[in-house]
Amino acid sequence: MKLIHNIKTLYTMVSTPGNPLGAIDNAVVGWDDNKITFIGQQFPPLKKGDKGGFSLDANGATMLPGLIDCHTHLVFAGSRAEEFAMRSRGATYQEIMQNGGGIRSTMRAVRAASKQELIDLALPRLEAMLKKGVTTIEAKTGYGLSLNDELKTLEVLGALQKLQPIEILCTFLGAHAIPPEYEGQREQYVDHVVNDMLPRIAEQGIATMCDVFVERGAFTVEDGRRILQAAKQVGLLTRVHAEQLSHFGGAKLAAEIGAQGASHLEFVSPEDMKRLADASVVAEILPIAQEYLNLQPVPGRALIGAGVDVAVATDFNPGSAMCNDIHLAARLAVTRCGLTCEEALLGVTANAAKALGRSDIGQIRVGAKADLCLLRGESVWDLLYDWSDNPVIGLFKNGIDTSFLLRNGISGKKKTNNNETTESTAHTEKT
Ligand code: NIG
Ligand code: FE
């Protein structure tokens, strides 16, 4: 067994009355292979034949589960900085989208990029997330918008999984925008997603979930229903981008379909909240996107009051949230969406795992994966309170120490003296 002892406080994220974060003082955590096998305040008795074990001194650090970013659009190319500037001068996200920019602009860049280029762009992003203590992310397609380019994006995600330790759970988001080939033929594109794309995506086997952007100018509730029902039939979990820019019916659909998660929800109604709670749909709130687009805050407090489980994620993407800092997302969930610090930490651990339909991550308990994050200092609040610091000092994914990568990076780009970079990324076939 491998152990970490001298943990000042262990936050298991297994909530009990009076102890919402499942805190245990002066803790010892042990694991065999990739699974947690011991949690206590004393060393476990030595087992016969347990060779190769060791115990690391946490030196009074704080421990919590590896963080989970349950909503990202990780694979993209190109920049939308110009759109940010246009919005500062008064243009809206939807106007930019209607004029051929927005998601379609990133689509053009992704279609033009090779797999290797997309991998090289994504690796430093994953490295930044790892440094923030993230051990699992969800990543969506949705910038390919053709069968081949959606499959290509998923192949990129499959390759990224082999190059670095963060676990990547993949979501097919073919219904993110209507591609130019289907201009004015939304229903035909939905037919294509249902009849041609979904079966091939399922056959490829990399995506385990399907998402739809239900919004005026994107897809209707009826489109979403068709796509998500078809997705269920091919064995994918379902999720919905809902009520981000207007109250359009996505949350009601998420409840009706029994989706795993409904995201954004700035314009969610009290009736929707009840529906989400009754159907056990997790609300994924995305405070960075809310700030980036200067939207009204998502009513996080009211969602929790209505009995909805709330997860917090970055929504990392080039258009509405060009930021992969899960700490910032959690901080804004507190200051802008009314969550308590406890709720924000549950949002990036236990509830993020629920949003992904995973019971083996997001909590530190016997049988769960040994995804463990160590924070400098004695207070877990530092992660939320100190906006200029990164308190993560150690990270284990599946029981494997990633400190070497935390220090040296995973992108394979070594800085040379004259600030040039040299490539050493594992070779992946170019298309
Ligand atoms: O989650 N709302 C739709 N999709 C993304 C934005 C994608 C983009 O603008 O590129 C989101 O905010
Ligand atoms: Fe999103």
Question: Quick summary of this structure?
Answer:
Helices cover 35% and strands 22% of the residues.
Total beta strand runs: 18
Average pLDDT reading: 94
Cα-to-Cα separation, first versus last residue: 44 Å
Bound ligands: N-(iminomethyl)-L-glutamic acid, fe (iii) ion
Question: Would you mind describing this structure in some detail?
Answer:
This protein has about 425 residues and is of the alpha/beta class. The protein has 2 domains: about 1-65 and about 365-415, Urease, subunit C, domain 1; about 65-355, Metal-dependent hydrolases (TIM Barrel, Alpha-Beta Barrel), CATH 3.20.20.140. It is built from 16 helices and 18 strands. The protein is globular and about 70 Å long. N-(iminomethyl)-L-glutamic acid binds near residues 106 and 317.
